[in-house]
């Protein structure tokens, strides 16, 4: 299930606390002794907060987010499964993000000497209604871990418990909080091919030496490296994304016109968010009966260094 504490009388000291969130929805708070924390709603297995040791929020959640089923939560880290976007027979981004998950009853307690004590294991199985719209039996297990150094790790395992194969696409739709989108650059995706969702998924090759932002972007980068950096010039902060089992990476910002068209998104909030999403989209995953797929992302936030007046991401990308 999750780790426990020797001082249940003081919830603020618990590495894992089960409590209520907005509109009475069940949520889990993960804490580390350094002061870092994360919050996960059972609705959608949705991470809605990740704060560093200075209590600074690192994820973006819209001030207009609707915490009321069946509407998915706008921001944080939605889970896109078993379909990304609206390319398929299901609702956009699938149904995992607007289902109530359970705490996994088969979760194994963390070993006594483990450094990762702040975690929770969640489980999603299809309901009868789910099987009517996607007729495949599966078990989806998600572990959300808060590392002692402040890293946030999400590990997904999807097992085919059906008698026939099935195919799915997937993304961690991560919304990062940034100071000003015009002051942000993404390193690690240069020279790669991408599918442009604003142009009917037409294929192009990235030409710049970094991705910067001057308007709407909705691109699926293909065959991406295991490490990507987001550099926030104003905050002198770099987010580092490490990923496994997820060959693609979506970069998304709606910009002004699309932001105004979203009912659960503030008109100017696009300036303070950026989605960089580890994903498996171009080549969907097929599981035979009994097979299991694993996909993982690890997020860290580190101080950025300067080199000739510019942020120096290469030190971060080459680092551990």
> What is the number of helical segments per DSSP (H or I, 4+ residues)?
3
CATH architecture: Distorted Sandwich
Query: Strand order within the widest sheet?
Result: 6-7-8-9-21-18-17-12-15
Count of the separate structural domains: 1
Protein name: glucose-6-phosphate 1-epimerase
Active site: 173, 277
EC number: 5.1.3.15
Pfam families: Aldose_epim
Protein model, in words:
The longest helix has 7 residues, at 255-261. The strands form four sheets. This protein has a nine-stranded antiparallel beta sheet. Strands 5, 10, 11, 13, 14, 16, 19 and 20 form an eight-stranded antiparallel beta sheet that branches. The protein has helices at 128-133, 255-261, 313-318, and strands at residues 16-20, 26-31, 37-41, 46-51, 79-80, 102-103, 118-124, 138-146, 152-160, 166-172, 175-177, 184-187, 193-196, 202-205, 211-212, 217-221, 227-232, 237-244, 248-253, 273-287, 292-303, 306-307, 310-311. The protein has one domain (11-305): Beta-galactosidase, Chain A, domain 5 (Distorted Sandwich), CATH 2.70.98.10. By secondary structure, it is mainly beta. Belongs to the glucose-6-phosphate 1-epimerase family. It holds the Pfam family Aldose_epim. It comes from Chenopodium quinoa (Quinoa).
């Amino acid at each position: 299930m999750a780790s426990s504490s020797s001082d249940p009388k003081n919830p603020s000291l618990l590495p894992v606390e089960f409590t209520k969130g907005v509109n009475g929805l069940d949520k889990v708070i993960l804490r580390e002794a350094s002061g870092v924390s994360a919050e996960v709603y059972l609705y959608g297995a949705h991470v809605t907060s990740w704060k560093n040791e200075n209590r600074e929020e690192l994820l973006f959640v819209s001030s207009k987010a609707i915490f009321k089923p069946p509407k998915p939560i706008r921001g944080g880290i939605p889970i896109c499964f078993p379909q990304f976007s609206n390319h398929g027979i299901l609702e956009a981004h699938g149904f995992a993000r607007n289902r109530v998950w359970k705490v996994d009853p088969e979760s194994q307690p963390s070993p006594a000497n483990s450094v990762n004590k702040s975690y929770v294991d969640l489980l999603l199985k299809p309901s009868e209604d789910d099987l009517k719209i996607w007729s495949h039996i599966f078990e989806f297990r998600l572990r959300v871990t808060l590392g002692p150094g402040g890293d946030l790790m999400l590990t997904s395992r999807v097992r085919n418990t059906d008698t026939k194969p099935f195919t799915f696409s997937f993304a961690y739709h991560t919304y990062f909080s940034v100071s000003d989108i015009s002051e942000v650059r993404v390193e690690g995706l240069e020279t790669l091919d991408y599918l442009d969702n604003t142009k009917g998924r037409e294929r192009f090759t990235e030409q710049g030496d970094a991705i910067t932002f001057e308007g709407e972007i909705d691109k699926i980068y293909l065959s991406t490296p295991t490490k990507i950096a987001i550099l926030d010039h104003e905050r002198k902060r770099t987010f580092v994304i490490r990923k496994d089992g997820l060959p693609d990476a979506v970069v998304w910002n709606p910009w002004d016109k699309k932001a105004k068209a979203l009912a659960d998104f503030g008109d100017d909030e696009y300036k303070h968010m950026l989605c960089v999403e580890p994903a498996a989209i171009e080549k969907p995953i097929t599981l035979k009966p009994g097979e299991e797929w694993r996909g993982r992302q690890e997020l860290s936030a580190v101080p950025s260094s300067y080199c000739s007046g510019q942020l120096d991401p290469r030190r971060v990308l080459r680092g551990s």
